[in-house]
Amino acid sequence: MHTGIYKEVVVGIKMAIVHKLHPDVHLDQAQNDIIQEKLLNAVDANPLEEAPTKFLCSRFAQGVFWITCEN
Fold first, then answer.
1. Distance CA 65, CA 29 (A)
2. What is the spatial distance between Cα 26 and Cα 48, in angstroms, rounded to a whole number?
3. In the prediction, which pLDDT does 25 show?
4. Alpha carbon of 34 to those of 27, 28, 30: distances in Å?
5. pLDDT number for residue 7
6. What pLDDT is attached to residue 4?
7. Is 30 among the domain residues?
8. Which member of 4, 15, 35, 66 has the lowest number of beta carbons within 10 Å of its beta carbon?
9. In sequence order, what are the beta bridge partners of 59?
10. Which domain holds residue 30?
């Protein structure tokens, strides 16, 4: 995943992944790394007949994993 340009960030589908006890508990870097790995594995396992998910950008900030997708 990569950081995106402003145009990509404002037009995509935005999601945030947070700790289940958010805002009292934030994700740490190790948890973020696991989330990214599992997310990419799930995308890779997508059947070929389905349109693949296109990630525009992602970032990890203040204990939140932010993702912007095109579709």
1. 10
2. 35
3. 97
4. 11, 10, 6
5. 61
6. 57
7. yes
8. 15
9. 66
10. 6-69
Spell out the per-residue pLDDT of the chain, length 71, in tens: 555 556 655 678 899 999 999 999 999 999 999 999 999 898 888 877 777 788 888 999 999 999 998 88
Q: What one-letter code names the amino acid at 51?
A: A
Q: Which tokens sit at 65?
A: 């994993």
Q: What tokens does 50 get?
A: 């389905």
Total number of domains in the chain: 1
Q: Is residue 53 part of a domain?
A: yes
Give, in order, the Cα–Cα distances in Å from 60 to each of 18, 37, 48, 51, 52. 10, 14, 29, 26, 23
Looking up tokens 């890779």 gives 44
Phi, psi of 40 (to 5 degrees): -65, -35
User: In a 10 Å sphere around its CB, with 0-12 CB exposed, 13-18 middle and 19+ buried, how is residue 56 labelled?
Assistant: buried
Q: Is residue 1 part of a domain?
A: no
